[in-house]
Amino acid sequence: MRGPISLVAFALISTAPAAALDLPTRKAGLWEIKMAFEGRNIPAQTMEHCIDAETDKLMNSVGGNMRADTCSKQDMQKVGATIVVDSVCKVGAGTLTSHAVVTGDFNSAYTVKVTSKREGGPPAKGTAADGTSSTTIEAKWTGPCKPDQRPGDMIMAGGRKFNVRDMPKMPGAPGTPPAPK
Fold first, then answer.
1. SS3 (DSSP) at 163
2. Farthest-apart Cα atoms in the chain, separation
3. pLDDT tens track for 115-156
4. Could you tell me the strand order of the sheet in which 29-38 lies?
5. Domain boundary assignment for the chain
6. Lowest mean pLDDT among 12-21, 29-38, 57-66, 155-164
7. Shortest CA distance to 100 belongs to which of 123, 122, 131, 78?
């Protein structure tokens, strides 16, 4: 189970420049989230995410807590309904420069397109040799959460489920010590 959860954590960290700043709150309920990765040897992922106002805020802060001390640049501009985020952050021994464009409506559907370049440090698993990558996240609201879901639940392909409230406690999560070998 660690693989898919690590993939989600990796995707969140790579798109965290957008999440770390004050984005609008998403409508409570069940969101279908599709992530496509270019420039990485990682397959596309689809998941469901059951949220309420509290867990949406928590999810947006996953990358934000580590970003405050590690980013030399975090610039967010809103142009009409589009949000543009540019950041330069220290990630491990490297530097991650990202440009994110967020479009759509946080009540029904939105898209996040992130282009990143990592310089320095060892290459991240599954990334291109030159350190460049692109991630596209497409999310759409599908209705109320299902009866067996609680706010914060992320349901991965194959039905694996975990709750974002548990992410800070997971081995390898930002701000936690690495898992013992």
1. strand
2. 49
3. 988 888 877 676 777 788 899 999 999 999 999 999 999 998
4. 71-79, 82-91, 94-105, 109-119, 132-143, 29-38, 45-51, 153-155, 161-163
5. 2-168
6. 12-21
7. 78
> What is the C-alpha radius of gyration for the chain, rounded to an integer number of angstroms?
16
> Residues with Cβ < 8 Å from 98, sequence gap 6 or more?
14, 15, 17, 85, 86, 87, 88, 89, 114, 115, 116, 117
Structure tokens at 90: 């220290």
* 38: pLDDT strictly greater than 80: yes
pLDDT for residue 51 is more than 90: yes
- Half-sphere exposure (CA, 13 Å, Cβ side) for 70? 20
Residue 166 has which token pair?
Answer: 């548990």
**Residues in CB range of 96: below 8 A, 6 or more apart:** 14, 87, 88, 89, 90, 116, 117, 118
Output the six-digit token pair for 165: 């409230």
For tokens 């936690």, the residue is 176
> For 56-112, how does the pLDDT look when each residue is reduced to its tens digit (9 = 90+)?
888 776 555 555 678 888 888 988 889 998 989 887 888 889 999 999 989 999 999
